[in-house]
Design brief:
The chain is built from 8 helices and 16 strands. It has 350 residues and is an alpha/beta fold.
């Protein structure tokens, strides 16, 4: 790509960023949204995602920019030059200094669980606010920051539903749903993930929201705790099968799995396009009568069909609702960023 093409792209990218920022900042102020997506492949020639994060309470702003993998080959040198030009354009358009702009490249996963692996080792985190919730994010060390901005409406949906209820958060990651469930008055919360790193991060998020003394880290060797909020290390599928055998139930279940994982801690590769029906069947088996399961995926290949799940999913008393359209936030132009369904069961044993 010649310099003239890069210059032309920086101009249209800069203009688009400025226009989106001027539009979204009014909405952000009105809704108390301090972190949001500014740009997402709006221009095909500039295949970037740009997220703005505001540190709490300082008000310092940061940009997180990542490049989607291109459908054609480009040398590392050329890509580095191009990314530097786009970063400089963003710096100028939004008046954010380059030391607060973080750039990454998002590639298709080819076997490795790259989305959740460290790409740097600064261990530097900042606190951001989501209304009265607080979260620690890391702009340096991972491809993702620790908070999925597209799930903001779903987090509030969960929060508004769980008062005095028991909650199971599967694939809990850094515990953002857990924090909102606690703020929403959940009676008890069990959050399950296989990663010690992310469970520790979830514990930190609970700490900064004032729930540290009510939260305990557990695993199969030390499963008992008097704490109402439990961060449990386990493979999710094994956890659900054990819960079925022991007769445990939860009123609300959140299931937002990764698309793919071949973690060494797993006995088998996890592929949501293959495993989603079994995962939903197991989750529904531990859902209390009258309860709600939320199942979300960012896989566009998954073909959702309740008949493949069986069990409670095909029971006449189970209501399945596609909430995808209502769960995409204002700042996301990509209406296919994720899909979301709720399963609501009648208040009798199925």
């Amino acid at each position: 790509m010649n310099n003239e093409n890069i210059e032309n792209q920086t101009v249209i990218f800069s203009n688009r960023l400025t226009k989106r920022y001027n539009h979204l900042r009014k909405w952000a102020k009105r809704t108390q949204t301090t972190c949001y997506r500014l740009y997402d492949r709006d221009i095909p020639e500039v295949p970037l995602a740009v997220d703005l994060y505001t540190e709490d309470p300082s008000g310092t702003t940061y940009l997180h920019i990542y490049l989607y993998e291109r459908p054609y080959e480009k040398s590392d040198e050329a890509e580095t030059e191009w990314m530097a030009a786009m970063s400089a354009a963003a710096e100028k358009a939004l008046s954010i200094p380059k030391e607060r702009i973080f750039t990454k490249i998002r590639r298709k996963q080819r076997g490795a669980q790259a989305q959740y692996e460290k790409i740097s080792h600064t261990d530097r985190r900042i606190i951001i606010a989501e209304t009265d919730a607080r979260f620690l994010i890391n702009l340096d060390d991972y491809l993702d920051t620790g908070l999925f901005l597209d799930h903001r409406p779903m987090r509030f949906m969960v929060r508004d539903t769980v008062q005095n209820k028991s909650v199971l958060n599967l694939f809990c990651y850094t515990g953002s749903f857990t924090v909102h469930a606690a703020l929403g008055g959940a009676r008890a919360i069990t959050s399950v993930d296989l990663s010690n790193t992310y469970l520790a991060w979830a514990q930190d998020n609970m700490n900064i929201n004032g729930f540290g003394k009510k939260t305990a880290l557990t695993d199969e060797k030390s499963p008992q705790t008097d704490a109402p909020f439990e961060l449990h290390r386990s493979d999710v599928t094994l956890f659900l099968r054990r819960a079925i055998r022991s007769g445990e139930k939860w009123d609300c279940i959140i299931c937002d799995p990764p698309t793919f994982s071949n973690s060494k801690k797993l006995d088998d590769v996890f592929d949501i396009n293959r495993d989603w029906a079994e995962l939903c069947r197991l989750a529904l088996a531990v859902l209390s009568p009258g309860g709600t399961l939320w199942f979300s995926t960012n896989s566009r290949k998954l073909k959702f069909d309740p008949s493949l799940i069986g069990g409670a999913a095909v029971h006449p008393g189970t209501i399945i609702t596609d909430l995808s359209e209502h769960s995409i936030p204002e700042d996301f132009r990509n209406q296919k960023i994720h899909r979301l369904w709720s399963f609501s069961t009648e208040n009798t044993e199925l």
